[in-house]
Structure formats: C-alpha cells, structure tokens
Amino acid sequence: MKIFSILFALACLSLGAEQIQNKPNLIVIMADDLGYKDVGYNGCTDIPTPHIDALAKSGVQFSSGYSAYSVCGPSRAGFITGRYQQRFGSERNPQYRPEDPNMGVPKSEKTIAEVLKPLGYSSKIIGKWHLGAHKETHHPLNRGFDEFYGHLGGSHYYFQKEMKFKDSYKLTKDKEEIQQMRTWILDDHTPVQFEKHLTEEFTDQALDFIERHQEKPFFLFMSYNAPHTPLQPAKKDLERVSHIQDKQRQLYAGLVVGLDDGVGQIMKKLRDCQLEENTLVFFMSDNGGKEKWGADNGILRKDKGSSYEGGWRVPFLLKWKGVTSPSIYDQPVNSLDVLATIADLSGAALDPEKPLDGVNLIPYVTGAKQGSPHKAIFLRGGGSEGSYAVRMGDYKLITYNGGTCHQMFNLKDDISEEKNIIKSFPERFTEIDNVRAEWSKGLIEPVYLGLEHTQKFKENNKKK
Ligand code: CA
Asked: Of the residues 72, 138, 139, 213, which is catalytic?
C-alpha cells in the first residue's frame, strides 16, 4: 500500500510537471505606435530603454517582425484572433460606438482568451482594447477574458483629472470619438478613479495579476496605450528625457521611458515569482510609429498607416527562459503567430472551419525547424480595391490604386524601399502577385465603417 502511495504521488508529481510544461503562461506586452528605432536595441540613442533592451538581449529579436496591420484596430483584430482580420471584415479602425453591436471583431471569431479558456487559463487584458465598445457584445469579459482593467477605445488621456465621463457607454453621440479618450477607466465593468500616471497604473495592475495567478496557467495581455497620443508623460519621466531638444519627441520619449519601466517591473515580478521558465513573453508594437507625433522608424520608409516597412515592421521580441536562446531571427514573422504559438504549445482545440494564419514560432527559433515560418506575409487596407503589401522572402510587393500601380523592392539590399525593381524582375512580380491574388480569395469586404468616416477625422484632415 505504501509503495502504491509513493508511486501514485510520483505519478501526480510527474503529471503536474507535464501539465505545467504543456500549459505555459503567456504575457504579451503590446506597445501602441512605438517606432522601430525607438528602442535601444534597434539603434535608438536618445531614449533610454534599458529594460526592453535587456529583454532583447536575453530573448529572440525578430528583425522582420510585422504587426497585422499598420494602424491599431485591424492590427489588434488580427493579433487577438490569430487570423488575418480581412477574413472577417475587421479591416478598419473601429469607431467608438457603444450602441453598435456590429462595430468590433465579430463574435463568429474566437479570441486568444476564448481559445485558452477551456484549458483552464485565467486571462486579463490591461490597457487599451479598441476591438468594440458595445457592452454585451464586445467588452473583454464577453470575449473570453476573466478580468479587464483599462479603456475600451483606441486612445486615452493619462491622468485622472482629464477623465470627464464616468460612464463609458453614455457619451454624446456626435462627440463619442473625442469623449472616449476621457472616460473613467473600467475595472471589469466598474468605472474607477486612479492616482498615478496611467502607464504606472497599468503596470501595477499587471504585477498584481501575476502575483495572484502563480499557481495556474495565465494569459496576460498587457496592452499599454503608451506611447500613443495624447503625449502626456509623467513629470518624472519627462525629466529623464529633458536632453531631447525637439519638444514633440521629448514628450513622446517621456511616454516610452514609462513604458520601459513597466516592462522592467513585469520581468522582475516574473523572476521574483520564479515563473520565468514557465512563461512566454512577447513584446511588440501594434504598428509603426507616427513620426509627426515624435516617433522614429529609422531607415524604414514612412510610418503608421503606411504599407511601407515603417507602417508595420515593428520592435518584436520573444523570451521563454530555458527554451529560447538569445538570438536574432531574421525570417519574417507576424503578430498572428502569438495565438498559434500558445495554441500549439497548450494543445488548444481549434475550429477547423477557421484555420489560423499564424504558426508556432518556438520550433523555428529553437532550430528544430528550418526554413521560413511563412511562405508570405500579407497586408491589405481599404477593401479589395485598396492597397496590398506582400512580404515574400527578400522581396516586398506593394499594389495600390485598385491594382493598377505596383512597386517591388528587394529588402535584403534595400530595406528603405527606395529602388522600385518591378520592371527588372517581371517573373518575380507575377509569382508574388499570384500568391497575393490567391490569398485575397479568402477575404471579405470591411463589415463596419472606420475612423476615417468620422467627422473628427475629416476635420483633422481639413486642417492639414
Ligand atoms: Ca497603434
């Protein structure tokens, strides 16, 4: 009997270890509009980012890491479902419409939190949601998350004194887009007030969540709204970048150092809780930086909103202590791969009718698998008649004006996309464009209007 008990105990221990290994925790730290060159490890010299750099130095740096799109909403729709967002019509930046159940990622798609829930994961999103503001349909608690602390819209002020509207759902309809930036922060469904700078507040929430979930698998989507506008850094953070002469960049930099502090504190909490070897940490930006708001995408062409590299090639890191080695990985990857990675590792059940577009990156970064994870990586904006970009091997094809204009670049030789080589390589163009055409067969037209259709957007454009 005694021997049986010992054997049983050993079996339980072994099962426990296996379960833990098979269900690693996942933390995704997503910055908002962070430029490719606004982190030290990518060559930034004026903004100190020691904690992001430490993560980069000890993790995998994806030199060709792409967001799913070049602006927030569609990028996050792709990330959260692991599928190209154009497959289900989330192709535009959603408007803030708490009265509209169709303004957000359709319920027919599963979010990463919904995929992980049946496996016993506890999930929390902290920060920016921007995937629909309808309370019953799109609130994170109705999309698989157990906890939410943040704001439903796409941008937000950083100090409590700016929060003029307690109720996130009762805004003046024609001013919703402006007022949503000033709503009280929601703790699940409860409007709450906070004391610190919003970035610090979000970080505190993350530390608390990790502390409370050490025993069972968890998924934390750390969705900082920094360094997105409005550029309102904490005073102490602004002082740390007072050497920057350009006022706009100085304000932006203040938000970046606050974000960097958050990354450092989250990684320290993982170490303190001895969870590093059981937790995958991704760090990325949801799209490229906007240079007129102070960001710097370095040698990449253009910025947020563009199909050129500056729009969607972003700082992108992965660390899983004990599994990944410090390295630079050059093959193209994208944010859709996060869901596929954790789903594969944890054995999540997936809907065969809705195949993922991402792939598990772990075998590639460990060297167990060779070659490129993706035949190609795609971008489309503006519906079937809009613009496309395809990254395939060293080549990048851009198609716009309803398919009448094309540009092709060899990124290996020309990362800044300065030399259009399309006339020199007609066969390569045809090959990539055929891949693009095949991919686009699986897409639908946008299912909701975007920010570009709002009065505020039109007025802003008129001012320029
Ligand atoms: Ca963004």
From this structure: 72
Mark which of 366, 385, 419 sits at the end of a domain: 366
Distance from residue 368's CA to the centre of ligand 1 (Å) = 33
Query: Can you tell me the mean pLDDT for 234-247?
Result: 98
**Active-site option among 51, 130, 151, 197:** 130
Between the CA of 287 and the centroid of ligand 1 the distance, in Å, is 5
Q: How far is the centre of ligand 1, averaged over its atoms, from the C-alpha of 33 (Å)?
A: 4
Cα-based distances in Å from 159 to 53, 241, 266, 296: 27, 20, 22, 25
> Using 50, 70 and 90 to split pLDDT, how confident is the model at 462?
low
Model pLDDT, residue 174:
87
Neighbours of ion ligand 1 (CB under 5 A): 32-33, 72, 286-287
Average pLDDT over residues 204-212: 98
DSSP-derived 3-state class of residue 225: coil
Q: Is residue 372 a part of any domain in this protein?
A: no
Query: Ligand 1 centroid vs 110 CA: distance in angstroms?
Result: 22
Range of the domain at 236: 21-366
Domain limit, last residue, from 308, 338, 366: 366
Nearest to 315 by CA among 34, 123, 117: 34
Within-domain flag for 104: yes
Distance 34 CA to ligand 1 centre (A): 8
Tokens of 412: 């290996």
Whether 228 is a known active-site residue: answer no
Three-class secondary structure of residue 447 per DSSP: coil
Same-domain status, 125 and 263: yes
| H or E element at residue 191 | strand 190-192
What is the average pLDDT across 362-369?
A: 98
Domain total of the chain: 2
The string of pLDDT tens digits covering residues 3-44 is 444 443 444 344 344 444 589 999 999 999 999 999 999 999
Indicate whether 173 belongs to any domain: yes
Per-residue pLDDT tens digits for 387-428: 999 999 999 999 998 888 999 999 999 999 999 999 999 999
- The string of DSSP codes covering 307-351 is SSHHHHB--EEEE-TTTS-SEEE-S-EETTHHHHHHHHHHT----
Are 181 and 244 within 8 A, CB to CB?
no
156 assigned to active site: no
In a domain, 371, yes or no: no
CB-based burial label for 180 (10 Å; 0-12, 13-18, 19+): buried
- Tokens standing for 207? 């530390």
pTM over 0.90: yes
Ligand 1 centroid from CA 14, angstroms:
43
* Distance between Cα 228 and ligand 1 center (Å): 7
pLDDT of residue 454: 83
